[in-house]
Amino acid sequence: MLRRLAPALLALAVVLTAGADALANPRIKDIADVEGVRENQLVGYGLVVGLDGSGDTLRNSAFTRQSMNSLLERFGVNVRDVDLRTGNVAAVMITANLPPFATQGSRMDVTVSALGDADSLQGGVLIATPLMGADGQVYAVAQGSVAVGGFSAQGAAASITRGVPTNGRIANGAIIEREVRSDFGSEESIRLSLRNPDFTTARRMADAINAYMGGGAARALDPATVRLDRPSGYRGDMVSMVADIEQIRVAADMRARVVIDEGTGTIVMGENVRVSTVAIAQGNLTITVSESAFVSQPAPFSDGETVVVPQTAVTADEDMRQLGVLEQTVSLRQLVDGLNALGVSPRDMITILQTIAAAGALQAEIEVL
């Protein structure tokens, strides 16, 4: 009985392994964007009121005073010749991202940032402010209470600040007044833009779409773009077709690259990084210099003077580590295991990788942030 089941179990294991490998590949929607389906940046200038004395200094912020005068004049209050000294108002810049296909009347979040010398925006309320796009048109109006994550407190001799109290957010603080028109559903062709351009990935994506849709619906134009045409026999619109293909999984390829952040000592290496045969020796030299003072005291009843004589002690300590050899062309795991065997720290590993690349033994591109 077991002998009869053995071939079936083996076939099931192969199928499960193939399915697991397929699920490990990313979906098209995770590696590519539909051209034209994007956010639009909005910006506006306004006033935040209701601050507890933490607003702009009107004498130092002329734009805040002028903006407040203009605001009050719209309500019939003339304060042109009045010396205002309120500290409860702050000039701010409002930024937001207009989502794609956002409809009129829907809401979105906005970010509020102080423009003058305000100490904090905590407890403030943003007055209705129009938000404009790059074309100068008003697309939304923002207003509401500002939520600040940081705080600032001070006394007579000490102060404490956590976070950035001059920057805050208003959740759903803007109402969209103008829509960005789009006829996406009636389009006959679209272009998919790869987030990480690559010739191999673009070809694999086009082949996977053609295998699903049939015919030559997709073709790679360049490493970053795949053009998709709606087949003549396809009954659905472009929205339905994108919804169908975005779930297709594609094996994304990437270049062999080592990314180094010397500021934090972070190293990120891709799986295709290879190292040719090379010998590595690494050691740390630590030099310690210590200073101490010695007091020279003259003999009693002598004309000598008491002087301070400096004493310096210098010691050197060098780690004696063995020479490590990475034989043949090793993979990423073998490279990491070999460097860890040498007992090197991340910052020492950065130097080693750069030295290996200078020797021509690192088969990858190094990018230093």
Tell me the structural class. alpha+beta
User: How helical, in percent, are the residues?
Assistant: 10-25%
How many strand units?
22
**Major sheet strand order:** 2-3-4-10-6-5
Strand content: 25-35%
Order of helices and strands: HHEEHEEEEEEEEEHEEHEEEEEEEHHEE
- How far the N terminus sits from the C terminus, by CA atoms, comes to 62 Å
Instruction: List the total number of helices.
Output: 7
Low-confidence parts, pLDDT < 50 over ≥5 residues?
A: 1-20
Descriptive labels:
23% helix; disordered N terminus; six-stranded antiparallel beta barrel; alpha+beta; 22 strands; flat; 3 domains; 369 residues; 7 helices
How does this structure look, described?
- This protein is α+β, with helices and mostly antiparallel strands.
- The protein folds into three domains: 40-176, no CATH class; 183-245; 258-295 and 308-368, no CATH class.
- 23% of the residues lie in helices and 35% in strands.
- It contains seven helices and 22 strands.
- It has helices at 2-24, 28-31, 62-74, 199-213, 238-245, 332-341, 346-358; strands at residues 32-34, 40-49, 90-98, 107-114, 125-132, 138-145, 147-148, 151-154, 159-162, 167-176, 189-194, 218-222, 225-229, 257-261, 266-269, 274-275, 278-280, 285-296, 307-318, 324-326, 362-363, 365-368.
- The protein has a six-stranded antiparallel β-barrel with strand order 2-3-4-10-6-5. Strands 1-11-13-12 form a four-stranded antiparallel sheet.
- A hairpin with a 5-residue loop joins strand 5 and strand 6 (138-145).
- The longest helix has 23 residues, at 2-24.
- The two termini are 62 Å apart.
